[in-house]
Amino acid sequence: MKDLVKAFDELPYIAKLLLCLPVLNIAWAIYRIVKGATTNNVVMLVAGIVWIFFGCFITWLVDLVCVILYKKPTVLA
Questions:
Q1: Phi, psi dihedrals of residue 21, rounded to the nearest 5°
Q2: How many CB atoms lie under 10 A from the CB of residue 50?
């Protein structure tokens, strides 16, 4: 599972931007769940679960802005 987190962290900038689109944002939700499970971070795990349910509505905008500003899906991740 750590390989998945490392692969997402090393994605090119344009790939990270594309994964922020509403339908593809589920990838960042899975990333948060896996990263939360591997680092024993309950907040990130819960954030990943929330992202699955609300990703198509509003949270994709949060990811898009954070990737543009910080080059990561959120400051939390």
A1: -65, 150
A2: 13
Provide the 10 A C-beta neighbour count for residue 33.
19
| pLDDT tens digit sequence for 4-49 | 999 999 999 999 999 999 889 899 999 999 999 999 999 999 988 9
Helix (H, G, I), strand (E, B) or coil at 74: coil
Rounded CA gap, 51 and 2, in Å?
20
Domain that holds residue 8: 2-70
Domains identified in the chain, total number: 1
In this structure, the dihedral spanned by the alpha carbons of residues 1, 18, 15 and 17, taken in order and rounded to 10 degrees, is -100
Is residue 19 situated within a structural domain?
yes
Residue 76 located in a structural domain:
no
Helix, strand, coil tally for the chain in percent (to 5): 75, 0, 25
